[in-house]
């Protein structure tokens, strides 16, 4: 069972999408209203919804035909880093100019007990499916980072999984790690969607396939794939560090790190189309524009 939000005559509608792809509009406005109802009745969210959709007829349209919104207005998006071997290699390349024999703080954080966790985005900087992500004007080496996103409640319970894009500037980060917030956070530098797959309907979240495709015009410029099985950390470990002496809110998204990095000579350009697909969740499609074109 998945949760989406879409626009109907200018109004956001919350809906459940069944395994058979039927879209059932719901009375509630956002995911956490459902979670509260399910909790109050001591039911799983998917169990509660399976009962509810019997009273809420499906619409004729499939999800692909709808004007989708981000499935949740996440008050904050946080991100973990260097959680996959591939990410560690890519950061080492940026930081050392290709001298891969050096030991860096990326090697250290990959092995350390404490993971890298950073603040990534707010609802206003986060776009949804079909939205435009921006390129920074002061970077010439920018990439999407396809990541599994955990949708969590204020106590850190994982309610669902979504697809995320942690847009990143490799040159800014590589120049100096203290520039990380600027390499990660600017106008429309984060995207989530197209759906939230309820956690209680995922058999094994460490066996999800992630595929990233970047199109330049009609040409497939980059394609890469990986699996969440390659993740070095456990999700509850990442959530545990995020919550340590911290306050978060229902609907916070924690991106779990990238396992796909485009070739080193690649940088995103205005007009590119990014597709990130995670099995059982869906394909997040975004268009790339320079920040000047968007403002
Ligand atoms: O260390 C910088 C960021 C790492 C990151 O975003 C990732 O591994 O996905
Ligand atoms: Mg990342």
CATH class of the largest domain: Alpha Beta
Overall pLDDT confidence: 96
Ligands in the structure? 2,5-dioxopentanoic acid, magnesium ion
Q: Write the CATH fold name of the largest domain.
A: Fumarylacetoacetate hydrolase, domain 2
Number of strands: 18
Strand content: 35-45%
- The low-confidence runs, each spanning 5 or more residues with pLDDT under 50, are none
Count of folded domains = 2
Any guess at the CATH architecture of the largest domain?
Alpha-Beta Complex
Alpha-carbon Rg, integer:
19 Å
Profile the largest sheet. Answer: 11 strands, mixed
Can you walk through the features of this model?
It is a single chain. It contains eight helices and 18 strands. By secondary structure, the chain is of the alpha+beta class. The chain has two domains: 2-69, Vcp-like ATPase, Chain A, domain 2 (Roll), CATH 3.10.330; 76-294, Alpha-Beta Complex (Fumarylacetoacetate hydrolase, domain 2). Strands 1, 2, 3, 4, 5, 6, 7, 10, 11, 13 and 16 form an eleven-stranded mixed sheet that branches. A five-stranded mixed sheet has the order 8-18-17-14-15. A hairpin with a 5-residue loop joins strand 2 and strand 3 (23-25). Bound molecules: 2,5-dioxopentanoic acid (DO4) and magnesium ion.
């Amino acid at each position: 069972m998945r949760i989406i939000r879409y626009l109907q005559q200018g109004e956001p509608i919350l809906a459940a999408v069944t395994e058979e792809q039927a879209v059932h509009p719901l009375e509630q406005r956002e995911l956490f209203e459902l979670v509260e109802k399910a909790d109050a009745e001591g039911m799983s969210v998917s169990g509660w919804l399976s009962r509810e959709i019997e009273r809420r007829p499906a619409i004729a349209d499939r999800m692909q035909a709808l004007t989708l919104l981000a499935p949740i207005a996440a008050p904050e998006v946080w991100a973990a880093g260097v959680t996959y071997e591939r990410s560690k290699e890519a950061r080492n390349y940026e930081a050392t100019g290709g001298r891969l024999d050096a030991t860096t703080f990326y090697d250290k954080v990959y092995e350390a007990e404490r993971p890298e966790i950073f603040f990534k985005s707010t609802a206003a900087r986060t776009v949804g499916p079909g939205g435009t992500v921006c390129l920074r004007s002061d970077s010439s080496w920018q990439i999407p980072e396809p990541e599994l996103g955990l949708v969590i409640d204020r106590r850190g319970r994982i309610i669902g999984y979504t697809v995320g894009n942690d847009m990143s500037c490799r040159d800014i980060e590589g120049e100096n790690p203290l520039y990380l917030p600027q390499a990660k956070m600017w106008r429309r530098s984060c995207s989530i969607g197209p759906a939230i797959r309820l956690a209680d309907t995922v058999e094994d979240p460490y066996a999800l396939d992630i595929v990233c495709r970047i199109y330049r015009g009609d040409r497939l410029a980059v394609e890469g794939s990986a699996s969440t099985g390659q993740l070095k950390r456990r999700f509850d470990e990442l959530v545990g560090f995020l919550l340590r002496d911290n306050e978060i809110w229902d609907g916070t998204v924690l991106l779990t790190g990238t396992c796909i990095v485009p070739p080193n000579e690649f940088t995103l350009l205005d007009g590119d189309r990014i597709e990130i697909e995670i099995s059982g969740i869906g394909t997040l499609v975004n268009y790339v524009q320079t920040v000047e074109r968007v403002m």
